Structures are given as structure tokens and as C-alpha cells.
Amino acid sequence: MTTLTSVPQAASAAPVAEPPARFRDLLASEWIKMRSLRSTRWTLVFIALFVVGSSAVASLADLDNLAKSGSDAPRVREFLCFDACPAAGYMTLMLVAGSIGAVTVVSEYSSGLIRTTSVAVPARHSVVLAKAVVVAAVWTVVGAIISTGAFLVSQAILSERHAGVSITHPGVARAMVASTLVAPVCALVGLGLGALIRHTAASMVATLFTLLMLPTLFSQSRQWSADINHMMVVSAWKRLVQSWEEIPGSSLIRDATVSGSWAVYALWPLIAVALAVVVVRHRDV
Amino acid sequence: MIEVNELTKRYGSKTAVDHLSFTVRPGQVTGFLGPNGAGKTTTLRMILGLDAPTGGGATVSGVPFRSHPRGLRHVGALLDANQVHGGRSAVAHLSALARSNGIPLRRVDEVLQEVGLADAATRRIGGFSLGMKQRLGIATALLGDPPVLMFDEPVNGMDPEGVLWMRRLFRRLAAEGRTVFLSSHLMSEMENTADRLVVIGRGRLIAAESVQDFAARGTRLSVVVGTQQAAELAAVLTAAGAAVEPEGSAGAEKLAVTGLPADRIAALAFENRILLNELTTRTASLEEAFMELTADSVEYLAGQPR
Predict the structure, then answer these.
(1) Given 1.10.20.140, 3.40.50.300, 3.40.1080.10, 3.30.1330.40, which CATH number is that of B2-216?
(2) Are B76 and B142 in contact (CB under 8 A)?
């Protein structure tokens, strides 16, 4: 091509020296996106208060039971640390984490922002990965705050009857880790489904169905059905926060194993994010 | 420079873009014209790698756009001003984009200043007018100071002052040696902004040439002559090799003459002692040329049984 003589060539129009494409720039970008939405912030505060509150309610109810039954603290202690992990609170957390995880991706599609993003970052699978990392990090922090808060509140209440346990009590640390990680696990499952489905309402329904309704379709009464049930995130969480062991031979159905439940925690988000990455790379936006 | 080569996109049995080839050169504003549904946006999306072509390809500065891991320093694009998240402020939106490309955040203030949104920087985008969103979209495109810029219908929703500002901006960007590619379905907009035109209809190339050449190949140059001696003049002009047609309503005594320039017509009339009371050269407007050329390829004609 001939050089333009009549038009002064601005330095800016010449090929620019470009800094290397760094993944941490994408992380910073996704972090700005997440923290700049007020609705997300409020949702996180609300869900944290809700779970901690539901743990307080469960603990108060047990305190009441202990008072009525004439406190036999040591015998019920195993069960009482369950008050730090109330199912109603944590299932709501799963619901919220899954939905917000889905929204992180779907809101880009529904607003069309994904096109602006894809022009800025043509390596769009990297964007999905960056989103996954930020979502996982944020929900791990939120999950840790929630599980710690719920534990401290429940034990403070129960210690009134000397029914509290310490974090070193067998199974308690595991329950805390499992309750912390259930939030990022669900958020990543939601993110993956959001990237696959791209439609707000549909991905929301799919996420909630997968996380909370699907497990109820597989009863614990038959082995094959129980085996499928044990592959669900909510079942894995229940198994991991359960600090007592099943009495051997008490049931014909094998209980979920602890290691199997950790594997469930790892595989769901891994598969969801991997599918999202593959699909986003190949699909038109 | 943008090079499009045999680009084709089919959705099922419908062909949106059909073996389209053209080149957009740097240092000029190139208009991308076509009726609604002609395939302009689809073409832009394929150039940007958002949609995969069914056939053919497109390169920006010699390489497919998707081969860049980060894009803002290579191409600035405004496809649709509404492709933003209404819940964020302008500054958060631009900061996230800048950060993803390793662009220093002071550049965000610079582009907001440049497009006149500095005062609205911290307001939620959801409350912006379409004109403000267009300005934000242009700010996004300028963020990486790229050599190639693409805008899809950028003047939609702009007030007259904004349109004027935008025209000057496009001229300036081109004068800086950048490639400026501008789509519109409004011919009049291009008349004032573009140097060259790429015109498509039903996904096919209709013309790729300078604005002047395009206008000239539309309706042929004609001269309107008004006289009391219309019949006499018509005979003289026809004898001189012109095509003459009565113009306007009957009895208006006007003739539309093609094939002879105005000065020649005046000389002939003078020689034949015919008094003229009007002599007007009519250049085909770009709008007419556009309508004429795309008439066959309009996708959605009003009042047509479907």
C-alpha cells in the first residue's frame, strides 16, 4: 500500500505496542463488573443475614427443647452442632448462589453487553473462566462469613445450656468447610447453566431445578436411586455436615461416603464451567 | 484496513449475506449503506468475529479479528448503544472494559471528556437517553485508541448538535489516518460524512465507490428549462441530440432535458431567439441514486402483500 502523503499519519493510528494479554486483567475487569452492581451487594448481605438468622432460630428452638427435657447436653451434642447448618438457611443460600451465578453470565446476554465484551476480549472463553474465578472467590468469602457467623451464633446460644461445641469437635471443621464451599459450588453450577442457556428465566429455572428439585426425584429407598441422589450437591452437603456415623447394618441402603461427597463438590462446578467454556468458544454471540 | 472476502452467512434457508467482498481503506470515512435487513449488521458482526461466517472471511489489518486475545487496541466498535448493563455507571462500564485490555484507567476519563459525558460519568447508564448511550458507545470504541473504527447506525437518537459533533469526530478520526467504517440506512447522513460508499442490498454488493461516482451513476444529469415556446425549443434540442420530456403538469411549459449541458441549451435557445425563463441543472441527489439502485433489493416494502 502506498503511504498517505496528503494526510498526516497520527502516531495513534499506527500499530500500537500492545501489552501481553494477561488473565489477571480479566479478573480485575470481572471484579469491577461484580462490585459495581448494587443489587448483588444487597443480595449478599441479605442472604448472609438470613442464614445466620435461621441458625439462631434453630438453636433457640433446641435450647427450648433442652429446657423442657431437662438438659442432657452430652448425649445430644452430636446432633446440636447441626444447628449451625440449618437446612432451610442453606438451601436458600444454594438457591441464591445458583441464581446469582447464572445471572452473572445471563445478564450479559440479556442486555447485549456480551457483544461489547466480546469485541473487547475476542478470546471469550477466557472471559467465562475469569467470571468463574471471581464468582468462586466472592462466594467462598461470603460462604466463609456465613458458615462462621452461623456457627458462632448457634454455639453462643447453645452454650447457655452448656450444649455448645468447639470447632475442634469431631466433624465440626468438615461441616464448616462443606457449608462454606456449598455457595461457590452452586454459584458455578448456575454460571455454567447460564452460559449454556443464555435466557434469564429458563436458566434460573434450570439452575434451581438442578440444585434443589432434582435430588428429591431420587429417593433413598432403592440402591440405584440412592446412588443417583448421592451425586447431587445438596445430598453431598447434607452428608458432609452430618457429624454422626450411620450405625452399620441399620439400613440396607449404603450411605453416601465422605470422599464421594467431596468428589460431588468438585465435579459439578468443574463440568459446568468446562461445558460453558467449550460452548462459548464455538457459539455465535 | 478491513478486507471482506466472499463473506457469506446463511440462517437455515435464508441467506443474510451473500458472497460479499469489499475493502475499507484507512484515512477515509467509508459509509456502509443498505435498506433495513440488507445484512449490514450481520456483516459487521462477522468482521468482529461475533458470528462465524458460513463461507468466506474477513480480516482487520490483515488478520482475522478473533486471532487477537484482546481487541480494544485493534478495533473500536459501536454495534448497538443499548448493549450495556443499565445498572452500572458509565465510569464502571468503561473501567471494566479498559481493565480487561490493560488500558490505564485515566483513559476512561479522557474518553468520557471527549464524548461530553464527563458530568454524567457516575450516573447509572439505565437513566441515559439514547443519544447519551450512543456517546458512551463511541467512548467505548475510542478507549483503546484503535486504528480501525466501526459504527453501526451511530446517529440514531442523536440531537442535531450531537449529529454535527459526530460528523466532525468521524472526519477527524479519518484524517488521523484511521479506518472509519460507518453503517447507516440514511443516505443523507453519508452525503455529509463519507468519502466512499459500500452499498449492499439483500446481502449482495451493489456498489463500492466514491460518493461522487455513486451519485453520478444514479439518475442521469438533467436540466430543467422553462419557456413559453416549449414545442419550438424541444425541436431544436432534439435536433441537437438531446432527449426532451415535458416536465411537471401539462401547460407548465417546462422541459426536462438530458444529454446536453445547461450552457449548450442556453446557446441554442439564444441562436433560435427562444426566451428562457428558467434554466436549472438538476444533480441527482445521493438519496435518489440510493433508492434507484436498491429498489430491487428492498427486503421489507410497505404495503406489499407478503
Answers:
(1) 3.40.50.300
(2) yes
